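Trying the structure run again after the queue cleared.
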Amino acid sequence: FSINFGRRPPTSPGHTMATPFPKGLMILAGSSSPALSEEVARRVGVNLCKAEIYKGTDKETVVNIFESIRGKDVFIVQTGCGSVNDAIMELLIMCYACRTASARKIIGVIPYLPYCRQSKMRKRGCIVTKLLASMLAKSGMSHLLTMDLYHKEIQGFFDFPVDNLRGSPFLIQYIMEQIPDYRNGVVVARYPGVTGRANAFAERLRLGLAVIHGEAKDLQEVDDEDGRNSPPPPAMEEIPAVMPSRAELLVQKEKPPLNVVGDVHGRIAIIIDDIIDEVDHLIAAAKCLKERGAYKIYAVATHGLFSPEDAPQKLQASPIDEVLVTNTVLHDTPEQKCSKIKTIDISIMLAEAIRRIYHGESMSHLFRNIPLED
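Done. Tokens:
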């Protein structure tokens, strides 16, 4: 019988230098992107955790985990596509199941965070992204790994660490290797709000920058009557006005016609967007660039949702030559309908991020040469 003071116990394959007790890494796959989950697990070098996820006869989501995850670091891969609300409920149940099974850490790997575009207050709505962040924290999630949030400020909604990876290195590498004569191109921001990201692409590609301003007449949004323009009650009409007249205050904002700020004549136009969902605005921008003399047009975005069923057909018939997106969202079906959609695999970055989080290593290596605007 002996006691060792100040000496670390001998390590074994289950031990790490940071912890004296066995750790384990488990990857649990949701139903939204099984192919991406399998590829990430393959690159990490582990098998997917054995589990089943299904809907009962009453349409309730059921999650059963068939392996012990006690004291393990569980990475749950789930993205926001298809039936988004079902994917969110499935993710919450998986997180809570891991929590009740005594998992050491629960890390959500959500390449595309659903409801990320509802991060601002509009009219009488609400900030749904904050609600989602609260639900994920309540379910037991302790860390979030995502990619290209719609607004970087969304990270502040969460009460736990958030790693917001960037998909731009993969997109830029594809442009440089697969687009002939890309140096004769110009980077185009699809709308002024994405100018910062487009400028980050232009600097790394060493190309010029153009911005599309305005909106096509047939796509301009008209605010519906929501009651905010209602006349004052009769009793208020007797009070003398100290403010500008109601007609002066309620002048409707109108966007100018679609126009290109910058020279694209005889150039390759590389349109930069954040999310491609409804493609009408993107196609209108491409037509405007074609009219200004661009001889080839590429559309680039990290997340390709293509939600409307006719989106692939519209892209196929559009003047856009190629649409570059990553596999943060499952879109095999649009690829079958539209040959212009090219998907870039980002599983290697997710796998490396998982490895670094598990071993407690710095994530800064994954953000090398990425400007703050991106």
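The longest helix spans residues 84-100. Worth checking whether this holds up in the mutant runs.
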